[in-house]
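Sequence only, no structure available. Ideas?
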Amino acid sequence: MAEKIPDIETAFNDRDELYALLAPELKKQTTEYWLERFRRYGIWCAKVNDYADVETDPQVVYNNIIQEIEHPKAGKIKVIGCPIDFSGTPSSIRLPPPLLGQHNEEILSELGYSQEEIEQLRANGVPLIISDISSLQNKNVSCCKSVRSSAVPQSYSG
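Reply:
I predicted one. Tokens follow.
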């Protein structure tokens, strides 16, 4: 393999070929086997966790990163907790994640749509679930700037 991939630059430029060479070999042993072997030779490496691994990771469990909350429609769900926790002011999850489209009317209003235009969209059978922000560009609104500047409105009371 050293003949095909003589240096790091070549490895980067030919990474698809390198992957094709390595993948079949890596599948022959466990992740733990390869991690131990790579570390023995001073190769920086780490396991890529799947969701089940993350949920049971000792540090995630100890720090209570994944929390279970009650959702009004979905029942009990697991969510990521606040990454910062202070002993004097502990964090908490106040609200469940929004339902799909739950805030669309507010967002459309903040982007400059009048209540009449929103009602017209609804009357025309347009589902008010925004999946493509580019569809709003016909309003001559710089969407990214508007969304960023109004992500948390000044009047937000949470």
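The two ends are 58 Å apart (CA to CA).
Hope that gets you unstuck.
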